[in-house]
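Progress report, Aim 2. The chain analyzed during this reporting quarter is listed below.
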Amino acid sequence: MLPTVLTLLVVGTAVLAIRGEYQPTRTHIYIFKPLTTLLIILLALQSSAPDAPAYKWLIIAGLILCLAGDIFLMLPPRYFIAGLGSFLAGHWLYIAAFTVGGATFSWWLLPLLLYGSVIYALLHPHLGKMRIPVTLYVIFILLMAWQALGRWSAMGSSGAAYAALGAVLFVISDSVLALDRFRQPFKAARVIVLTTYWAAQTLIALSIG
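Predicted C-alpha cells for the chain:
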C-alpha cells in the first residue's frame, strides 16, 4: 500500500514541478522539484532487499546525490558545475550498485557507444570550457547504463529490468537536457527532461524490491 501511495505522490508532485517550469515564477519548481526526488528516496527506503543490502544503500546514496544535483541546478548558472558533479557522483554510486557481485561485459556497449558518439558529436562544437566535464559525464552515464543493461541480461529479474529501463531513461533525459542547454533550446525540452528523469529515478528506486 505504501509504495503505491508514494508512487502516486511522486506523479502528483512531478506534474506540479513540470507545470512550474512553464510559469512566470519559479515557486512551484523550488517546492516540488526537490520534493519529488525526496519522495523517490522515501520509496527506496521502504523497499526491502534482504539478499542485497549493499545494492539498496548504494542506490539510496545515489538518489541523495541526485537530490543535491536537483537543488544546485535550480540555483543560478554558476552552480551548474556543482550540480553536474553531484549527478556524476550519483552515477558512480549507481554503477557500484549495478556491479555488486561483479561487473558485466555485455554487447549493450556497442549501441550505447554509437548513441553516445552521435550525441557528443552534436554537442562538441558548442561546449567550450564545459568540454571536459561534459565528456566525463557522458562516459559515466553510458557506463552506468551499460552495467544496468548487462545486469538485466545476466539476471533477468524484474528488479534488474526496472534498473535497466531506468538507466536508459536517464540517458535520454540527460541527452535532451544537454542538447537544449548547449546546442539549441526548445520549449518541450523541460517536460521531456523531467518526465524521463523522474521515471528513471522511480524505476531505479523500485529495482531495490
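The helical segments are 2-21, 27-45, 53-74, 80-98, 109-123, 131-155, 158-183, 189-206. Residues 158-183 form the longest helix (26 residues). These observations will guide the mutagenesis work planned for the next reporting period.
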